[in-house]
């Protein structure tokens, strides 16, 4: 735990209004044996981030593509820290049944009444632009990927993806929020092409341009990495426009 806190404190996170967290705590938590220790670890991490005064944003995807998505109770299985924040009574969660986000902090309400499109107009990704946002990867190398790529693909109408609406009914408690939320999915109709996303070249560019502050080795699962949201978006846009297949 001490290493995590030491790493986080090396960054000027208090300068940001929003901190978008990607986490993989398996290596950091390898020595944790009990539920009590795990809860203490996650609570200490969350409090350290909240101490910056920023709002913490984290994916709480459930990929609920049918039936009912209950904003307040359908659980995410993305990771321990994601689940911890999603289930915190102070957190706010967006309504998208496949790609929801949870936030905790002074500006968490920005997630409410999100648009129907997972990555496009009025999505969480578009709402964070120009708002003073940074990415923070904890135990997750940047090369592992970043879903901001899909916002870039959506904005540029990537030929290898398509919009599909799902009839999942969304509720926030007893309040019906709607249906027909859409996702921007990979095409699977071209023989020999999977269109799986790769982020290694983008990672190399981010490092080469000096956009990444890091604590630990670039490919370490015990590393912590911070990089500005708007700067990253600008670079990803440039990469796509120069090569529309750069992310596949």
Your description of this structure?
This protein is α/β, with parallel strands linked by helices and 248 residues long. The chain has one domain. The protein contains seven helices and twelve strands. The protein has helices at 2-8, 35-50, 80-86, 124-127, 148-155, 200-208, 229-242, and strands spanning 18-23, 55-59, 68-70, 92-93, 101-104, 133-138, 161-166, 169-172, 175-178, 181-186, 212-215, 224-228. Strands 4-5-2-1-6-12-11 form a seven-stranded mixed beta sheet. The protein has a three-stranded mixed beta sheet with strand order 3-8-9, with no helix packed on it. The termini are far apart.
Give structural attributes:
248 residues; alpha/beta; seven-stranded mixed β-sheet; three-stranded mixed β-sheet; 7 helices; 12 strands; 26% helix; 22% strand; globular
Write the layout of secondary structure elements.
Layout: H1 2-8, E1 18-23, H2 35-50, E2 55-59, E3 68-70, H3 80-86, E4 92-93, E5 101-104, H4 124-127, E6 133-138, H5 148-155, E7 161-166, E8 169-172, E9 175-178, E10 181-186, H6 200-208, E11 212-215, E12 224-228, H7 229-242
Parallel strand pairs: 1-2, 1-6, 3-8
Antiparallel strand pairs: 2-5, 4-5, 6-12, 7-10, 8-9, 11-12
Helix pairs in contact: 2-3, 5-7
